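Would you mind writing out a protein's amino acid sequence and the numbers that encode its backbone to help me picture the idea?
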Amino acid sequence: MFPLGNKELNIGILGMTEGNGHPFSWSAMFNGYDKKYMDEYCKPLFPVIPDYLGKQPEETFGIEGAHITHICCTGYAEREMAEKMAKASKIPNVVDDPLEMLGKVDAVICATDVGDEHIERCKPFLDAGLPMFIDKPLVNKEEDLRTFIKWRREGKMFITSSSMRYNKEMVPFYKSHYELGKLMYICQPMPKKFETYGIHALEAMYPLLGPGFVSVQNTGTYEQAMVHIKHRSGCCVDIPQGIGMAGAGTLIIGTAGSRYIEDGDSYSAFKKQLDNFVHWLRTGEEPFPFAESVELMKMVVAGIRSREEGGRVVMLDEICVD
């Protein structure tokens, strides 16, 4: 029965998509890790992961009473990669078919960042009544968003988020930015492509303004997005983003002042995200309302649609989810 209370939690993790090493890092945050194998298997692919893991004191690893006990990689590198991740992040069980986890785990993390795949990857577990954390973005398509909303109404249990919501440098500004006056402009640069990393930029700035986004326009290309967003408050948001582009912090400009906020501690953001997942499993208390995820996914869908339709302004109320 959900919520799961104080029982020992066995959690399965699903991977993998090209360019996404979350099963390495997230599993290590639950289980600890073997430095030798992490350096051997993870470092050549995702050098940033062993780097930020190596900066953490040993006592920061682990979430009380919760462990990643099963891993399955489908879609990229398959069994070979799952075996490597298991050795690096101390996961005792590797399975070839995700469905082998059923009856053996209490919850599942879908640690893949291709929204188009999430319906297929998650449906068997949600149908079986297992609670899930689904990596960002939840979806890239309007019809998939409608499906996830329908599932929520049916009582299926899942949450989703970007780790950028938990950047420790930004959180104080979510709680209070009165010294800046009324917010007028936010610039949130982001590396990689909008389909997978656009949600990082969107969710990083979302708590500054809250619900009420009106329109999205993407005048860029698949390789280099240029996204312009309007909020009902009058604040405008720009997201310059590109494959091969370096990341940057957040520029916030208000009527009374401005701030440039750098972010640099990926570990603390991911760990807070996973702590919140376990808290939700135990108590049923969501980190934030699902309605926020719906609005964020509408912006993802609108950004892709705008680009594909020649950079036209897409109103969020065009994205029909009822």
The longest helix spans residues 290-308. The longest strand covers residues 66-73. The chain has two domains: 9-162+267-288, 165-264+298-318. The mean pLDDT is 96.
